[in-house]
Amino acid sequence: MQKESCTKGWGRTRHHLGQTAIRLTAIGWSFEHKNAVHSVGNNILLITMLSSSKEIVITHEVGINSLHVDATEGRYLLSGGSDGSVVCYDTVYPLRDSASLCKQHVAAFKTDRRVPRGHKFAVSSVQWYPVDTGLFVTGSFDTHVNVWDTNSLQVELQYDMPGKVHSVSMSQVATSHLLIAVGSEDPMVRLCDMATGACTHTLAGHRDAVLAVQWSISSEWTLYTGSCDGAIRFWDIRRAGSFKVLDQDTSQMGRRPPIVKHREWPISSEKSKKLLKRAFGDKSGATSSHSRKSAAHERVAPKRVHPGMASVNNYATAHNGAVKALLPTNDGYFLVSAGADSRVKLWDVESGCDTLVNYEKTRVKGNRATQLALSPDSSLLFVPTYTTIQVYNLWTGVLLKTLRGHFDNVNCCEFHPYEQEMYSGSNDRKILVWNPPPPPRIDEDGKDVCSTKAKGASGEAEEFSTRPDEDAWSD
Amino acid sequence: MGRRESRIGRSDRGERGTNSGGKKARKKIDEDEGGGEYDDHRRLADLVDSATNSPLLALDDRSLVSFKALVRRSDANVHAAFDLLYDKLKKHHSQVRYLGLLLMDELFTRSKLFRSLLVPVFENFLLLSVGFRSDYPLPPPQERASVLRKKAIEIVEKWNDMFGQHYKPLRLAHDYLKKTLRFEFPNAREVATLAQQQRRERERRTQDLLKKKLTSLKADYPELRAEIHSTLEQVIECVAILTERKCGDDQQEQFNLDSDEDEFEEYGARNLRSARDEVEEQETIPHETGENEALFDTLRDLYRLLTSRHLVSTQEWLSTLMRVDPEEERQARDTLLRDVIDLRNKLLKAREVCEGAGIERSEGASSKSGADGDADEIIWEEGEVLISNSAISEAIEATSAPAAEADETTRVGAVAEFTAEANKSESEERKESVINEAEETEDTSLKAQLLKEAPVLKWGAFLERWGSDRAIPANNRGLEFENHWGKVDYDVTIPAEKLAESSLNLRAVYYSAEKTEIPPCLAPLRNGGFCPRRDLKRCPFHGTIIPRDSRGKPLEVEKQKPENLSDDSWENKDELDSTIPSESRNVNVELVQQAIANVRQKDEEFKKKVLEDKANVRRERAKRAREHNDACLRAAAIGTSGQGLAEAFGEDVITPESQPKKRRCGLTALLRKKPTAKDRLSRRLLNGRVRDATATQLARDEQAAYRESFPNQCDEDSESAESLQDTCSSIPDILVNMITGLEEFYRFSDWPVTYVHYFSCLAKFVIN
């Protein structure tokens, strides 16, 4: 029954690629959902830990490169494996006969290289079609970008790229175009049109492979790209060239003052103000150079010179190494970037300045794209760091927690859009679920359900039976 | 206050350690708590230190018990223990980590708090104990590291089985180690369940078999029971008759008889009575005599039946009944069991009765006599064996008797006699046997006479048609067979005249070599016997076989050689015979023999001399070499100053490092590399002094070459000259060092001494 519901679930977009553009007009609803979640208490999220009640049973025993949860139902988790397989897990309904304490979630479907035109090499990036679960897009190291029909599990469209594909992205807010932005080994960013099945744009400007591609949350025409040359470029796809190149030397202290005034702080007001004061307030002497710089910037900004033409700005770098991940905050005002120089930076999208938030002890290495995650209210930032995931307060950069559980390098994190749940994929062939611990379930007798259950389960050979989680001092 | 208390705690720590907490009760509660905690921590630290500071692979039981008791006391202690153990796990020594791991295992399975402390750092824990990442290998010593890894994997599996359900990191770690890194887990759980399953299966099978047996037993039981009972009755009757007889003989026991009869009828019904019976029977049953032999025979048969069949089968039933698992027929089984036990007791009693009657003894005797009979037969058959010991001794006597005459012919004769005698004795014996048989079968003298005359032949086909002239059928098998050449006449016969041709009535005689007696070597052996080997000409141990006297001394040794000589010159002798007149023949022969003897003696002497010379030369050379070696060693001892020879060898040089330390079998000893023989040798050879000497010598050589090529510069350069002088003065020293080094090398290697000798000569030359 679950299986049926799964397969029926993705019926909506089937073979209606031409008509999807019409439906895109009704997309505003997903935001309402997200806003609802905002108020669900950050304090619980702060004690995020390895889920004891949920477990994803891995079907493909390979490293996980990319994860994505669909935004429509918030039910299906797509994972791209390093053997070219793509597996979808149902995160809502567990396996029916999983009797243990931990609910087991199994794969809803799987595609791999045996499917005609399936990926031959590692899948580097996966994304659901933003409108419904009828389609999903995958990019792979075999230089192809595939658009899959979820119902038939066949490749509907395939785009050839000049090199390994590192990242694919579809705009969550686009209503007038249906473009897949593709970052690949080639310095050119390509935009593939799903309606025509061809590549429409080639955005030239980067000097090295493009690892990160993200559409803007606020504008459907704006695209952010990060490259191995350390540059983050903003593109308006209606115009030629990038309109902004983020420069790590242009910085501003904190968030823009007007926003501080009228916007509510996501973390509790008293504490945050104190933090803010500690971080920026008393450093008036130190900020003189920055203020001068920002003043200069303000002088330049009104001119709106197209930076793609101005060669001076064209060489600016955001990181002293490859930009491995980009992630816009959910309000669209900020952009988080992670670079191979082991830095995570928070950029003000509007001004293009580094907000100088110091994220403690970040370790981001290697030359592969990673995937950061943000909680729905953009308060917590999850950064894969070797075998752990570090949880930061996005606004202050304070390291809140280090999530340990993986045994190999973590490649990607994905926060569930509507639930307080985070998924992480790693090279140790596991997808782990992280969530706040469930409230203890109490029986009528007042006993903890978990422990009684465990007691009931033990009954096999004495020596090897599972024990209840209690003290057992025999001597 | 707390500090003071802690100081007190420190001061009398040892005291407290010994007599546990007895004094503690006397102290005030608040003081006790503050100081007690501190004390606990110190004690914990001490315990952990002592437990992890041992080269053994197991924990000390006593300290473990006290450790656990201490940890159990409070949560703070668990925290402290965790910290201590985790620190131990970080030590750069696999043995410490191993013991720490064992302690952790003890606590992990017991304390929930400990589990909750360890699980968050489980990855690190694995890194330290399993060492699953190549950039964090396990510390030395190597073999302990492998032990540690194995144990850690075992423990992870155990923990996962026990608590994996509650601790996800445990499960993940287990999965990762097993599935991704493919570590080999002992799989204890699966193995155990498998073993249990197998055991259950085996039990089930045996139960099935037993049940089958039970059903068959149930079916057959009444019959078998009746059989056994009849046997028992027979025994009783036999015994009754015997006792009756005895009583008939012996009137004194008259009064017993009547009651006995009654009792025998209900034999075994009451224990007490039967016991009494037994006693009486043992007393009353008479010994075997000629009269009651038949009775005893029957009893014996019955006894045999009892012991070999009935008792064995009852035993079998009993074991079946005891082992079988009666599910619904418990009642039936129990009654049957009782019955069988009863039956067995009866049988045992009957056996005892029989044994009391001396059945067993007589049985043994009879078997013994049977064996004797067999032995007799064997002896009878042994008559055919060619030589018995007596024959050998006879032969020795025969040879020793004519020993006085001592010439060759007698020897040959003796051997001939020996063989002849042996043959004769054999044939005689055979004949006797034949006669014996004849006497047994028929006593008619004519036939006996005829038999005496009749030749004994081997059986052959000809015997069947001996003297007959009848035609015989060609197909004497009576089988019908087909021939593919055509029809076969089954009734065809072979006529009598053709029989001769077809050799059916002819006796075929095949050549068979006569069995000749090969005389034994008879050389005296060390144990006083004689060599029993029978070789044709030459015994491999005692040389050519020669006639010997009764003590094994060879006869006619003296004459052997000349005779041989004469044998050699046999042809010459013949020639001489033909040409030279008979008077001078003897003289000539003597002369020739003398000449030959002379020549041979000379040859012998010459050979001997050559051999002696060689030996002398060898001895001389060895002596010279020894002298040289001694001289070298002496020179080294004198020439090298300070510690002299020993230092040159690098041997027993007393330095602060190599001073004999107290042997520690602690943890550092595990880390230390054990030196091999090779290491020792190389250290000695390459010790600093020799190396320096070589270096100096090389430098000198270089200088010499320089001097040769630029002789005029040498005078000008006074400094170099000075240094040259220095080196020259140290040359003997260097060389001596080198020699001693080589000497040492020689001592430890298989190289011949000549190299050393050569080198020492060279050295002397240079010194001079």
Automatic annotation (TrEMBL), chain A:
Region Disordered: start-end pairs: 279-301, 436-475
The entry's keywords: DNA damage, DNA repair, Repeat, WD repeat
Gene Ontology biological process terms in this record: DNA repair
Pfam families reported in the protein's UniProt record: WD40
Coiled coil: none
Biased amino acid composition, Basic and acidic residues: 441-450, 464-475
WD repeats: 116-158, 203-245, 316-357, 403-435
UniProt keyword annotation of Repeat present: yes
PROSITE patterns according to UniProt: WD_REPEATS_1, WD_REPEATS_2, WD_REPEATS_REGION
PANTHER family registered for this protein in UniProt: DNA EXCISION REPAIR PROTEIN ERCC-8
Listed name of the protein: DNA excision repair protein ERCC-8
Organism: Riccia fluitans
TrEMBL record, chain B:
Protein name, entry field: UV-stimulated scaffold protein A C-terminal domain-containing protein
GO MF annotation terms: zinc ion binding
Organism domain of life: Eukaryota
Source lineage: Eukaryota, Viridiplantae, Streptophyta, Embryophyta, Marchantiophyta
Pfam family, one: UVSSA_N
UniProt cross-references to PANTHER family, sorted A to Z: UV-STIMULATED SCAFFOLD PROTEIN A (PTHR28670:SF1)
Region (Disordered): 1-37, 420-440, 550-582
Biological process (GO), any one: DNA repair
Species the sequence originates in: Riccia fluitans
UniProt subcellular location: Chromosome
